Design the sequence.
């Protein structure tokens, strides 16, 4: 089927986990071809084969960042540089890609440039690269946006670069591009497929909260109030200490849960969002959920749940599926937001769809019986 050529904006923990995961599955595929592995499928993937594309078909051909310790370095070296603190999955092969200087704009919160430990950002004193030129020369088909939460202007900059170069956008963070009708129309007009916004985890706080809320609703239990509190020690949580950058994140996570309810909760009765930065947690994320409701004849019922996950690897499988679905759309000359894969892999898609229905729509899309 050929390679799927991907560019990455933001070489942080999520990018590191994705590339190490791709290397992990590349090795498994090699072992299968040599007859050393007999089992069907791959550990930890929602989909092994998508339309003839496998994880090992994904190739990163360009990368952008703004941190002094990453810009100019080989990609494999940059992904292990501070402030990254991700759990190591495996070694990455020596990369031919050098990290280019991105456009800073609002891509870094001021407090993170003066933080006391090695989680601080050190912005490189270099001229920003010509992003459009690099996308064209690298042959990139898809740009994966992993910029920090709150990077509105920076995300819009990369979205514009995609529109000008014909490159697809997979927006993994909560700036609303794919789910914004104005932006969506522009990608549709250019016949460029896009996926977004704000990537889900494989088993994360939002997908767990959605599933439990849907369970309450489908079993006839009225939810009165609920909260989701999250702590972590990576740069994502440090960035979100600046509450001014959180508006779209809270909207994204809250709407993902509210969409599962027949009657949305009053804003005072639902609280979802990051709670605090705990440095020693590193890339581990701990989520506390509580749901209170009323069942048969009004009897009270409450549920409490604690979820602990490695934050960045948790989204890798969703990213791999989004990339392959986007490539299938490009092969078929489909433009604009991809509804099924966005609903399946993103918190704030153009259209919220129940997760098991979204999975089935993705299957039909891959088969060619669902248009997008």
Sequence:
């Amino acid at each position: 089927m050929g390679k799927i050529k991907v560019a990455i904006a933001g070489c942080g923990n999520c990018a590191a986990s994705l590339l190490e995961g791709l290397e992990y599955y590349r090795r498994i595929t090699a072992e299968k071809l040599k007859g050393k592995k007999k089992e069907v499928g791959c550990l930890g993937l929602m989909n092994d084969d998508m339309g003839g594309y496998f994880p090992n078909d994904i190739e990163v051909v360009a990368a952008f960042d703004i941190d002094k310790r990453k810009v100019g370095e080989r990609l494999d070296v940059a992904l292990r540089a501070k402030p990254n603190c991700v759990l190591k999955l495996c070694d990455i092969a020596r990369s031919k890609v050098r990290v280019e200087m991105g456009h800073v704009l609002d891509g870094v919160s001021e407090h993170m440039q003066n933080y006391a430990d090695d989680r601080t950002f050190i912005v490189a004193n270099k001229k920003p690269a010509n992003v459009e030129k690099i996308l064209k020369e690298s042959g990139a088909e898809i740009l994966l946006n992993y910029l920090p939460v709150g990077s509105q202007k920076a995300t819009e900059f990369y979205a514009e670069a995609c529109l000008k170069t014909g490159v697809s956008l997979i927006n993994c963070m909560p700036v609303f591009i794919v789910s914004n009708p104005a932006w969506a129309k522009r990608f549709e007009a250019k016949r460029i497929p896009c996926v977004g916004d704000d990537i889900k985890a494989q088993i994360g706080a939002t997908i767990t909260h959605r599933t439990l809320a849907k369970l309450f609703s489908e079993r006839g239990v009225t939810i009165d109030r609920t909260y989701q509190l999250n702590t972590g020690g990576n740069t994502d949580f440090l960035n979100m200490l600046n509450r001014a950058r959180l508006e779209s994140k809270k909207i994204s996570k809250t709407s993902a849960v509210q969409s599962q309810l027949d009657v949305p909760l009053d804003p005072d009765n639902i609280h979802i969002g990051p709670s605090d930065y705990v440095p020693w947690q590193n890339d581990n994320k701990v989520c506390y959920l509580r749901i209170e409701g009323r069942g048969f004849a009004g009897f009270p019922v409450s549920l409490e749940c604690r979820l602990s996950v490695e934050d960045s690897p948790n989204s890798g499988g969703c990213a791999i599926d989004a990339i392959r679905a986007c490539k299938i759309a490009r092969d078929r000359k489909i433009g604009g937001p991809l509804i099924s894969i966005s609903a399946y892999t993103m918190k704030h898609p153009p259209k919220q769809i129940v997760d098991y229905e979204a999975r089935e729509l993705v299957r039909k899309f891959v088969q060619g019986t669902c248009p997008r």
User: Anything to note?
Assistant: The chain has a mean pLDDT of 93.
